[in-house]
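Might I ask for a little of your time on a matter of protein folding? The record follows directly beneath this note:
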Amino acid sequence: MDWAWWTGSLAPNSPYLSSLALIKRVVYHDPVLFEMDLVSRLACAAAIKETPGVFAHVRQSVVRLCQDLLKCNKMSDKSWVYKWMEPALGKGIITCSGEKAKFLRRLLMPSFHTDAVRKHLKVFIEESETLVNVLKEETNKEFTNIENFITLCTIDIVLETMLGTKMDVLKNGNLLYKTALERAEDIFISRLYKPWLWPSFIFWNTTHGKEFKQYMNVLDEITKRVIQEKKEKHLREKSETRNGKYKALLDLLLAKHFETHELNEDDIREEVNTFILAGHQTVATSASWALFLIGLHPEVQAKIHEEIDEVFRDDMKRPLTEIDLKNLHYLDCVLKETDRLYPAIPLFARQATEDSNVCGYVIPKGTSCVVPLYFLNRNEDVFPEPNKFDPDRFLPENSSNIPEYGYIPFSAGARSCIGYKYAEMELKTIMCSILRNFTVKSLDDRDKIQPIMNIVLRPSQPIRLRIRSRSIQKHSQIFN
């Protein structure tokens, strides 16, 4: 069967494909081509067992398959692949399973309810304004690598909202943190596609394993220091709460630590690291792809500017409000279409805790089912002309035709993303702030900027934007 998969001679309706496909990935110079090849063979989803590996080949409706898979209680554990994230995230909410996952979800959900997220809007706005001020220095340049600036902005936001500490990495132009996290991500993905590095005793003795530890120490040094400072302050002041409402995620975790001892200091560090990593990378990635697409489509950019002008009237300098964000309906459509084409998290995986039935197929216990969002979002049955950038798909009169599980940017079911409201408000605040002040032009076509299937969907090369002030170019031709 291995040779059949390698040569492509396996019968198209065979129920399983060999995991030698992972080894085949190594010989691909273009990772996207590999995933496209794999998913086209698997039709809509794949499953991989830990040892020995097999890919389940299920030919069913994409939407129905995702719905059955994500609603199945026996498929709610995270895949064994997530264990490789534990050196960075520990056994936090992203990597853990079972009762611990349920406990952490109950504990953390109040921090991400609408009312709680609304309290972070002030930070979103302030840091977005800092980003705008920094980008003003870029308006006389031929091009700008926009991802660097947005990532530093989201790092500042997540450190202040999750840890309650202000570090001003954007103002200081400190790329150390960003570079370390990206390099650690590269090593993680490299290991995923190199089975000979799967055994821990081999990986940690390689150059890559030692580098990974070094890069993650950059994150640990920050979190350990801030946790210790907050802990000492908590002990001095007895409480960091007011009427049961918390200023930052770390405050809630420390309160739980002192009140019930259900969380130890390692648990706190793991959750903080989890939300720092997940909270800044996903939003920065989505914003970068959105600006890239907007910069390629002047007609879309003109509609966004028209909507912004209508919402803010002639007072473009007044502070942004939550009501303003709610009234930016077309910008919502643009961001949803961006996440369809370039989902920040391109795939995720669930593991069967027992033999499970999904769409009439038995998924054996221990099998991890991979949901490749990047390709599912290009399902022609749901999205005609799937590779076309068309924000109108998400206008109310059109989006009603999208099935419930036809578009799931934050996953769905028991393990869906608990921070999606936080991410949506942060992303929209950043995008509105940028587009209130600037016009953007992308200097490279979509064919040149390919997505790279890492933990987040990163561009294959820097996204080069030409940024100009709207105060100079307002109502004039953007793309001269």
Summary: The radius of gyration is 23 Å.
